[in-house]
Design brief:
With 154 residues, the chain is an alpha/beta fold. The protein has helices at residues 15-29, 52-80, 101-121, and strands at 34-37, 42-43, 83-88, 126-131, 152-153. The protein has a domain at 32-134: NAD(P)-binding Rossmann-like Domain (Rossmann fold, 3-Layer(aba) Sandwich), CATH 3.40.50.720.
């Protein structure tokens, strides 16, 4: 069956809204065959110059966001005993480089979670894949001067 596309906006850093978005998707289509987690946020800076608030925002976008969305969709896939979950991650989920500690930590955590999930979902015939590309071109958002998000890349 072919479905008309539907645009559903989601701020992956707003963990509280992810469950409602997943319900909206499932109500609209009945199921999700393939979930591709591809949102990401990165920051460049020395560990001592990055605030704990920004560290948490990076972790929300790169770790808690994808796992929250995955957990919201997963029961539907398990009940149907089919589905594919893909995490588009980063090579920095395997190795850390200087001035990217928060980003690398969030990507390492995501790899660990999805590696465990892969093993757990085998009995339900649900495929879980992690893609760790090398560096990619991203766009840089230029916020107002003095804004702590000045060094965020999305």
């Amino acid at each position: 069956q072919t479905y008309a596309p539907k645009l559903i906006l989601l701020d992956i850093t707003d963990i509280s809204c992810i469950g409602d978005v997943a319900k909206e998707i499932l109500n609209c289509y009945g199921c999700v065959d393939i979930l591709i987690n591809n949102a990401s946020m990165k920051v460049k800076g020395a560990v001592q110059s990055i605030s704990l608030e920004l560290d948490k925002k990076i972790m929300d976008a790169n770790y808690f966001g994808p796992i929250t969305l995955t957990k919201a969709i997963l029961p539907n896939m398990i009940s149907r005993r089919t589905g594919q979950i893909v995490l588009i991650n980063s090579i920095q989920g395997k190795i850390g480089i200087p001035f990217r500690a928060a980003y690398a930590a969030s990507k390492h955590a995501a790899v660990g979670f999805f590696d465990c999930l892969r093993a757990e979902m085998e009995e339900f015939d649900i495929s879980v894949s992690t893609v760790n590309p090398t560096f990619i071109c991203s766009y840089h958002r230029q916020p107002a001067p003095g804004n702590w998000e000045a060094s965020i890349w999305k």
